[in-house]
Structures are given as structure tokens and as C-alpha cells.
Amino acid sequence: MGLVSSTKRALRLATTPIKLGETYLRRLAGRPPRFSGAWPTRDAALASLPPQAVKGYDNDGVAEISFEYMTQVFAWDYPVLFWLKELLPEGGCVLDAGGHMGTKYIAFSTLLPLDRYEWNIVDLPAIIRAARAEQATGRIPEAIRFVEDAVEAPVADLLIASGLLQYLDVTFADFLDRLQEPPRYIVLNKVAMRNGPQVVTLERIGAASVPYCIRCEREFLAEIAACGYEVRDRWEIAELSNAISTHPWLESSASHGFLLTKKAESV
């Protein structure tokens, strides 16, 4: 361990009592932390919750939380926009995995002519139900096709997964196996990682407690390679680094984006 790493660890440990005290005071004030707890698996995190708790994203009412906010374009969206335009300049079939109620489609439509793309979204049943209901009112563009299971999605030229992987209830490899065919290109964004074993915390989203997976970077890169893909581009999103306030001795997560291409393919 180098001097810088040792110093950072010492500072983190020294400030742990203060951070724990702040978390306790927030709870007393009725403001629970955004992230709490740390477990090795998603199942262990869910098992820690009382029976009456609202568990996970697949719940009616969760879909509307922050919807308008998520339809904005943020700095971390620009790599996705760049590769969408670069890889499919004439259009093509896009699978937006974890695309919610069309938030990225709505955001990107202000900057790109999305009518050239066949845009498909796969998400959890509760999210898809809400999306279809809003689509019927005209709030969500008719051009988006919503499906509840990846196996129902058409063969895509490009898979976009922006903010999906921390909430995914299966491995990345298992998700790809659900597709009819693996896409030629994959753009991942907002992937939470750490230098150490995987940690699953619980994120407070409205009334729901949602498992949030912070992957082991080394293991995730190995999984990408085992799936037959190469990392062709990578970017860091410093603004989306998160700390678990109940476990301040754990390092904050790092957020990254990736362009993946099938091995032996060129961009």
C-alpha cells in the first residue's frame, strides 16, 4: 500500500465516528440517508428488510419518481449521444435496457433526430405498465416500443444500458443471454464500481428500498471479456461517486461508462 493510499485510508477511518454521528442525527430528524447498509449480495440486502417494506423498483408508484428530472440531458449523457450518432449514423435498432418510461429518448430527442432509430425499451413490469399508460395519454412518444422481458426485444444493433447495472437482478452475462442475439455494440453508462469485493447497499427511492450493486471492477472487466466483448472506450463520471453513509469506512463508489464491441470488431 502506497503513501497516498495509506493516508486516504487513515483519514477515512479518522472521520468515521463523525460521519456515523451525522447519519444518526439525520435519522432522528426523519431524513434517512440515501444509501444504507452493505451486504455481499442483492438477496442478502433484501432479506434485511422487514416484511412490510416496499422492496425494489418493481412497484407501482415508483415510476413517477424523478421522471421529469431524468428527461433532462446531463454531462454524463454526452458520451452516449456521441457513440449513438457515431455507430449508427443512418439509424438502426436500439435496445434501451432499463430505459424507464423513455427518459433518455425524450432527453436525446432535443439533440438528435431519433425518428431514424427503432427505439425499444425493456424494463420491469411495473415501470412498463406505467409507461404504456402514459403513452396512451400522449405524454410519452408513440415511437417507443416497450417490452417487459429482454427475450421479447428485437435483435438490436446497439444496446444502451444507462444506469441499469446497479439495479439489475441478474448478472450482466445472464442479461445478455436473454437477448435473441448479442448486439454488435453496447454502451454502458453510470456503472458503479469499487476496488474490492462487490457490495450491495439499499437506496431509498421514495417509499421503496432498492438494492444498489457496486461491482468489483476487476471482476466486472473479466465478465465483459468472458461475454466476448472488448472495451473500446471508457469514461469516468466523478459527479456520480456515491458513499454509503452508514458505512463510511468503505471507499466511495466510482462511476464509469463504457463502449463495448464484439471481439474482432472495429469501430
Overview of the molecule:
This protein is an alpha/beta fold and 267 residues long. The chain folds into 2 domains: 1-31; 33-262, Vaccinia Virus protein VP39 (Rossmann fold). Helix content is 31%, strand content 26%. It contains 8 helices and 11 strands. The chain has helices at 3-28, 42-47, 67-70, 78-87, 103-108, 125-137, 172-178, 217-226, and strands at 35-39, 54-55, 92-97, 117-122, 145-147, 158-162, 185-194, 199-205, 208-216, 229-236, 254-262. Strands 1, 2, 3, 4, 5, 6, 7, 8, 9, 10 and 11 form an 11-stranded mixed β-sheet that branches. Mean pLDDT is 91; it is low at 23-29.
Quick tags:
11-stranded mixed β-sheet, 11 strands, alpha/beta, 267 residues, single chain, Rossmann fold, 2 domains, globular
Q: Which descriptor suits the 3D outline?
A: globular
CATH-level-2 architecture of the largest domain:
3-Layer(aba) Sandwich
How many strand segments? 11
At the fold tier of CATH, the topology name of the largest domain is Rossmann fold
C-alpha-based Rg, rounded: 19 Å
How many structural domains? 2
How many individual helices? Answer: 8
Strand residues, percent: 25-35%
Major sheet: 11 strands, mixed
Summarize the structure.
The chain is α/β, with parallel strands linked by helices and 267 residues long.
